[in-house]
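hey m, so remember when u said the tokens were messed up on ur end? i reran from scratch. heres the input so u can diff it against urs
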Amino acid sequence: MKPISPFSLSCILFSLSAFGQENWSHWLGDNRNGISAESSGFEPGKPWPPGPPIWTVNVGEGASSPILVDGVVYAFGWENGENVTRALEAKTGKVIWQESFPGPRFGRQARGDQRMYAGATSTPEFDAESGFLFTLSADGDLVARNTKADGDLVWHQNFYTLFDVPRRPQITKRKNTLRDYGYTTSPFVFEDWVIAEVGDRKGGCVKAFDKKTGKLAWSSENRDPAGHTGGLTPMTIEGVPCLAVATSYHALVLRLDGSNAGKTVAEFPWATDFSNTIAGIAAQGNELLIASRYNQMAMAKVAISLRGGAKQVWRNQYPTGVCTPVIHDGRIYFANKGIHCVDFKTGKLIWEGGRIGDAGSCFVAADDRLVVWGNDGDLSLVETAGRSPKKCTVLAEKRGVFNSMAWPHVVLADGRIFCKTVNGDLACFSLKGEAPAAGTPSSPDTPAAPTEWKLSNWPGENPAGLIWSWKQGDGLAKRSVAARRAKMEARGSAKFDANGAMKLDGGGFLLKGVSGALMDRMQKSNAFTIELIFQTDDLRQKGPARVVSFSKDPYERNFTIGQEGDRLSLRLRTSTNDKNGMKPELKLMKFEQGRINSVCLTFEQGSFVGYLNGKPVTRSRAVTGDFSNWDELHGLILGDEFSGGSRDWKGTIHALAFFDRALPESEVAARIQLAAE
């Protein structure tokens, strides 16, 4: 009998400890293999999950997955020009601590597919020995924070700055497949190192840093550009600790033992269009799985040895594009273009089924069931082949948890399932029968609004800085001192309802004679407040759907207030960003369907504040510059794009006002009362 290696022993001891603590502390869980020691909690004849989410919060944009350690959820996301790390109480979703640092929405070498790869993509990594949490931003910021000291910064390195990492090259011959999504792969802690796929073509693709100081410890022999993948995969080859990495060109296996660390064990050729082996590598023993849809359209099983390198065992035509395969009890499971079960020994398909598209992730629970998260927010429970050997059996589905791509990996820890979308929405389902706690984010987080919006005295008597206002009942002609010739023109099916409010369901209201005065006043002050009292008809609107837009077409604007799902956004053109006002686009407050809400958006000297029903809910200093580059030929329209047709909004506008100054918080609160009277 061979002795157990120190690497294997440390994994076993750590696993036993983690199971007792019921954590999910790394990419793919405590054992980094997508297999949980906890049951799915399914009981025949009862709903699964047992109830609605016990809380939901937004943790910032990106495909980064949450992790959980000792009752604390750690989440990493991007919002309003900041990379934000949050520690949340797992039971309530309440913020324990929050830290951030400035950074772009995309990596500095970004190229292509930005709708899908915006914000933080890499999953945080937790080190139990030090209590440090490691995050890696899209722009290459590897950051260590001390969770024992409320997230205090320990050290911070940037890969682009340190190693002058170039843009990923064109990998295959297929045209228009050059992509660079920035940094996507989760860091990996091993002994005294935190290891990352850096993509330094001169100094080594993979690098290890001293986890306590950030000092470079070693670099890999391999110098491939980094791939686009979810995480690094531990392997033990003939008793030697190793690491498997999906680079842009290979399934790379390298050593982690002492002075051999970074040396190449094997390089299995695996080049894909877009550098996309997103699913990464799964491993069991000395064998690994690598798969990609794209040009490969295959999954391969590869045997690794220290002397013989890599040898293909089989290759099939059942690829996974996004979901990392889970190897369990002689079978392979993945959720991509359906839910699939494949024989690990032969590569032959056992069964497939389910309603999963491109976006999907899964893990195997201790009761031999698959928990699947996919599409635009669908949570499913599926029998493994151990329970259903001949067909895909879906036990339960909860569809439409959210309404955006469910690419982040689903998590189970301490009797709770955590589901996240690329928009940053995070839901917690309790398998223990916990009820939503009053006063937690599980309760509606929209600040209370008046029970009635009479608008009798609104907008007030000559409020300072008012450029133009309109409220229900004013009709098509509404003039002000600043916009004497103002009038509105209804387009398409836009109309007034019985109360005289703007009813929008295709088409829009063009504001004539307003844009000139608005532009002149706002350019002089380089400040504004936009007050909007509105109600949406549909939380599934995308584009974003245009609520208020001062623009030329879908690609050029002075500003646009839009709706994306259950959240507003602001695109604001300034002298320091582009014509589309998307660098950055500000993600604003969430709101509810079937409810009238008041929104005030204020901007002055690079400081933005968004108010919902009189309460400040969004603050940002990410947008800088002035309005000197605004275009006077752009048109001001409500419910559509100025060029028409492609970004219709469905809802009702009850009142709207533009000011040439940023209203203070006290005045915004007073205007809520004014609107109610």
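this time it looks ok to me. The chain has two domains: 6-430, 466-676. if urs says something different then somethings off w ur setup not the seq
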